[in-house]
Amino acid sequence: MNKPSAAKRLIYGNFTIERVYPQAPARVFAAWSNPEVKARWFIGPPPWKLVERAHDFRIGGEELCHGRFSEAGTVTHGCGAALHGGDTIFRARYSDIQPDARIVFTYDMSWNGAHRSTSIVGVEILAEGKGTRLIFTEHVVFLDGEDGTESRRTGSAAHLESLAAAL
Amino acid sequence: MLNHQGPLSRTFHALADPTRMAIIDRLSRGPASVSELARPLEMSLAAVMQHIQVLELSALVRSEKRGRVRTCSIEPATLLAAQDWIAARRQSWESQLDRLGALLDAEDREHKTGKRKP
Predict the structure, then answer these.
(1) Domain containing A81: what range?
(2) A70–chain B nearest CA distance, Å
(3) How many domains does chain A have?
(4) Has residue A54 been placed in a domain?
(5) What is the DSSP letter of B79?
(6) Which of A11, A56, B58, B101 sits CB 3.0–4.6 Å from B10 for a disulfide?
């Protein structure tokens, strides 16, 4: 377990991502519900490698995606969203599934053995013309700031600039 | 305030001001009282207090009152690690959803060229 610290605080965030796909809602939904299809897009970028994957797509079912970034370096994408390489584990549980319409799940992310965040996600799959509008909304609580950058003097401004660039 | 968009935009709002950046820069060297922070700034103590309040609301700075002196300090480690992490979650899903779209497009092309999967 992490050692207690007076400075430890919970920090909350939320974001929404929208995409419009020319394919019908059933096709988009299948990309989430079919483990074989999901395994083709729910991956990390090189040097990410899959360690273990399991996907039980039903209400109450769980999904696991354990990946590893073998090389050190800043990596901010992928199944694991590693910050500086290492092991990432995505562990989700499906709360609600409405075929071709919506998926609600919660997930924990850990990075190098430390539980970093817990999230609630809603994926809305809406018909739009012949295609689909997908609205992905995530509420995330960040649990562990202890492993973050220690920088004080040099860090702040550069850090926030890179954050601004990332958005 | 832009707080309906969540903590990240709140942070940008907080930092999108030269006075607040100067306060952050000063606090990154160590804690300081409000009057110490106000000294190099050409504005009233009340105006400085307002800037500090914006920084506190965005969780970049915290302050503590001891007697008559309010001392401010920066909170970088937890907050910046959190914001990095949350931004990374978003970026991760952005690229996943793009990959999903590319995959569906590739399936469509396969169907058109007759290489339909069983």
Answers:
(1) 11-166
(2) 18
(3) 1
(4) yes
(5) H
(6) B58
User: How many Cα atoms occupy the beta-carbon half-sphere of A90 within 13 Å?
Assistant: 25
Residue of B3, B73, B93 best to disrupt the A interface, most CBs of A under 10 A:
B93
Residue A58 contacts by C-beta under 8 Å, 6 or more apart in sequence?
A94, A97
Residue A77 with chain B: CB contacts under 8 Å: 88, 91-92, 95
CB contact under 8 A, B98 and A19: yes
Q: How far apart are CA A77 and CA A67, in angstroms?
A: 12
- What is the Cα–Cα distance from B80 to B75, expressed in whole angstroms? 8
How does pLDDT run across A42-64, given as a tens digit for each residue? 998 777 889 999 999 999 999 99
Q: Is A6 among the domain residues?
A: no
CA distance B47 to chain A (A): 23
State residue B109 phi and psi, 5-degree precision. Answer: -65, -40
| Chain A residue nearest residue B103, CA to CA | A41
Contact between A153 and B77 using a beta-carbon 8 Å cutoff:
no
Residue A5 lies in a domain: no
* Residue range A2-13, pLDDT digits in tens: 444 444 667 788
pLDDT digits (tens, 9 = 90+) for A11-36: 788 899 999 999 999 999 999 999 99
Identify the CATH number of the domain in which residue A105 sits.
Answer: 3.30.530.20
**Inter-chain touch A77–B91, beta carbons under 8 Å:** yes
Q: For chain B, report the end-to-end CA distance as a whole number of angstroms.
A: 55
